[in-house]
């Protein structure tokens, strides 16, 4: 009788272990599907940004190579500057994609350290290349000066956000206010402290249907 009871318990235990294994595999499959969907969305979103500098560099090179047009030294310098800026922009985009892939694969791990935010934010803003007009005013407000973070990765994130805000943040009712970057200390629901950095533009926003 004991053997029959033990066999029954063992079967139930084996069934529970099997269910947990299947649940774990299903959760991993969902996570992989979400990662693939995010990667496809990222590539779709960045495709336009990749084509833009390529088109600019290609047009400038084609103009310089045209045999039926003579350019002044000023025009030649401007076309060369366009090529230089386009290649720099393309290089930054490719670097971002490679960093994203390495982060997703676990090849790059954040190196956390006490970081002076003012320096990181100003370096990120300086790294933004603005083509097509003067750079809008960027206002900085620091209620938090330090954070425990990876300064290099944070600078890359902020440079991308500020660049997007500068390039796409115009045209709204308050567009004249330019771009704002703020850093504040806040508290999570569990009482633990955190630093929140916001990059704010005053453009028209994203259409509701998108």
Determine the N-to-C terminus distance: 66 Å
Biggest sheet, spatial arrangement of strands: 2-4-5
Classification by helices and strands: alpha+beta
Uncertain stretches of 5 or more adjacent residues? none
Explain this structure.
- The protein is an alpha+beta fold and 210 residues long.
- It is 60% helix and 14% strand.
- It has helices at residues 2-65, 73-105, 117-127, 151-168, and strands at residues 113-116, 138-142, 146-149, 179-187, 193-200.
- The protein has a three-stranded mixed β-sheet with strand order 2-4-5.
- Strand 4 and strand 5 (193-200) form a beta hairpin.
- Helix 1 (2-65) packs antiparallel against helix 2.
- The radius of gyration is 26 Å and the shape is elongated.
What's a concise summary of this model?
The chain is an alpha+beta fold. 60% of the residues lie in helices and 14% in strands.
């Amino acid at each position: 009788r004991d053997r029959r009871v033990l066999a029954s318990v063992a079967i139930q235990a084996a069934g529970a272990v099997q269910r947990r294994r299947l649940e774990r595999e299903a959760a991993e499959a969902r996570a992989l599907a979400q990662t693939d969907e995010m990667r496809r969305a990222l590539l779709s979103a960045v495709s336009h940004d990749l084509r833009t500098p390529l088109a600019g560099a290609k047009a400038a090179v084609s103009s310089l190579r045209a045999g039926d047009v003579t350019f002044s030294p000023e025009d030649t310098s401007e076309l060369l500057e366009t090529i230089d800026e386009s290649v720099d922009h393309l290089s930054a985009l490719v670097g971002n994609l490679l960093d994203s892939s390495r982060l997703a694969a676990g090849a790059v791990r954040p190196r956390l350290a006490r970081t002076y935010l003012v320096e990181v934010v100003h370096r990120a803003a300086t790294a933004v290349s603005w083509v097509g007009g003067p750079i809008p005013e960027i206002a900085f407000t620091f209620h938090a000066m330090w954070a425990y973070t990876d300064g290099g990765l944070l600078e890359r994130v902020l440079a991308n956000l500020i660049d997007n805000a500068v390039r796409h943040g115009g045209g709204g009712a308050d567009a004249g206010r330019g771009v704002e970057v703020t850093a504040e200390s806040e508290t999570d629901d569990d009482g633990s402290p955190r630093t929140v950095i916001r990059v704010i533009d005053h453009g028209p926003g994203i259409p509701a249907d998108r």
